[in-house]
Amino acid sequence: MAIWHDTPTLEEINQGTAQCMPGHLGLEITEIGEDYLEGKLPVDHRTRQPFGILHGGANVVLAETLGSIGANLLVDTSKFYCVGQEINANHLRPVPEGEVTGRAKPVHIGRTSQVWEILIYAPNGKLSCISRITMAVVAHGG
After folding, report:
1. 10-residue mean pLDDT series, the chain (142 residues)
2. Under 8 Å between Cβ of 96 and 123
3. Catalytic: 64?
């Protein structure tokens, strides 16, 4: 049984991010599972750092986007919205080309906060980054 309060289509989600940072970097949400969300990010001129590998900040953009979208899919958005409070990332191996894939799963789903773990994989399937984000659940007008 899916954990989501609402399940928009992938097209609707990607349209919502097209004109902001995720869209400008080529990030795409690719799958909504029963209890996870996946997305991919190209490693190209938009996302590399000067040494020719994926910028750590690009990993964080992928992680925060997946965690934020997932968190908001869990709540009744007519009453609540979720915003990031804290994020961290451990960059484990460099990725020079291709695209990375992230998978976000909730670790804690509370009334006022959520914690998400995001695993990011290099094109060869090896773990390249692990991130965790804490999301605040905020009442509209609160």
Report:
1. 91 96 97 97 98 98 98 97 98 98 98 98 98 97 72
2. no
3. yes
